[in-house]
Amino acid sequence: MILRIVRIATAGILLLGISRLTAQPTGPEIPPSQMIRLRSIEAKTINSPEYSVDVRSESVKRDGSLKWLMVEAIYDTMPKWTDEITLTFYVVLEGNPEDLPEGAKKFNLFSGSVTVVNVPKTKEAETTMFLDPYTLARYGEPTHVAVVINIDGQLAAGMAEPSSSAESQWWTKETPNQTPLLTRDKTPYAFVEIDKQNTIKP
Q1: For labeling, which of 41, 108, 180, 194 is most exposed (least CB within 10 Å)?
Q2: Which residue has the higher pLDDT, 59 or 141?
Q3: pTM listed for this prediction
């Protein structure tokens, strides 16, 4: 199942200033809400990557048969450089009562945060997080997904799918499952399309 919404969330601005030979401020800083434009958010299941490695003279192969949940935000950044951008993802899974732990609700919220650093001005940057295959298999399919973006500790952008659910801010009303979403560097996708990914803060 794929959840996807594509729309422009914020509008960018260009600040013009007059520079001087001495080190003086050139004008007001860009507000965080105008430093980033959130284009889309998506939650989908994908196969684990196929690969083979040699470990202690033994060959290890993986056939890509496991299913991971990937949540992805696509966005533009306006400044030449942005020091840090923190994205917090939320996703709701609808599970089969036969698979869920005893006492668990049918709908369960999962969340995770990732901070990317030294972000250049760019269009259609990608940031992703993942839910491991066994938790996904047990807790079911995604029904809702959201992302909240902060820059310098201030709210910069946000988006939810279905879009009609955004006003209720459902992600603030439930306690997330103790199993977190994983950053890309903690999954088999760490080196997949690495040139398209911003650097993750340790």
Answers
A1: 194
A2: 141
A3: 0.81
